[in-house]
Design brief:
It is built from 5 helices and 7 strands; from the N terminus they run E-E-E-E-H-E-H-H-H-E-E-H. The protein has 167 residues and is of the alpha+beta class. The protein has 2 domains: 105 residues, Winged helix-like DNA-binding domain superfamily/Winged helix DNA-binding domain (Arc Repressor Mutant, subunit A); 47 residues. The protein is elongated and about 80 Å long.
Length: 167
């Protein structure tokens, strides 16, 4: 899919601006796809809820939907370039206001960004989440150990103070 300076590679779930990859993952990417699939039409907030969260999921749909749409607008530079791709339809939902072209042919050569300036990730959103979870779970035992040592030091200090002043 293409619109304006943007190209979407759906197989890789990656968005490019003028050939430069953007970091647009998870729910933000999904909102863009849903809007593009119904371009020109209104995507209700209920349709977005069903598309983004499976039945029985307990999240604050309103806040999460608003956050995803705002992040998408930021990624598309809507506030700085004057173009508006996402139109808010009051009390109903959103509409993709651009003109997207759909093609079966792959994108032309894509710029390779270096690690310092790149906003991309070579991993899928699922792989990113697993890495984050693994990183967090590796930090938890360390944090618990630090808390225990601090507690022991605090306890020893308090005991020493108590013994020297009240014994």
């Amino acid at each position: 899919m293409r619109f304006g300076p943007f190209h979407i590679d759906q197989q890789r779930q990656q968005v490019f601006r003028n050939g430069t990859p953007l970091r647009l993952q998870g729910k933000v990417y999904q909102v863009l796809i849903v809007l593009l699939q119904k371009q020109g039409g209104v995507v209700t907030r209920e349709e977005l809820r069903r598309a983004l969260w499976p039945a029985g999921t307990h999240v604050n749909y309103e806040a999460n939907t608003n956050t995803a749409v705002n992040k998408l607008r930021q990624a598309l530079n809507e506030s700085t370039n004057g173009l508006r791709y996402i139109e808010t339809i009051p009390r109903r939902g959103y509409s993709f206001a651009g003109a997207a072209e759909f093609s079966e042919t792959p994108s032309p050569a894509i710029k390779q960004a270096n690690a310092e300036t790149s906003e991309t990730s070579d991993t899928s959103p699922d792989q990113e989440a697993r890495k984050r979870d693994a990183s967090r779970s590796g930090k938890l035992p360390t944090m618990i150990l630090v808390a225990l040592i601090l507690g022991m030091l605090l306890g020893a200090t308090a005991a020493t103070y108590w013994i020297s002043h009240f014994a």
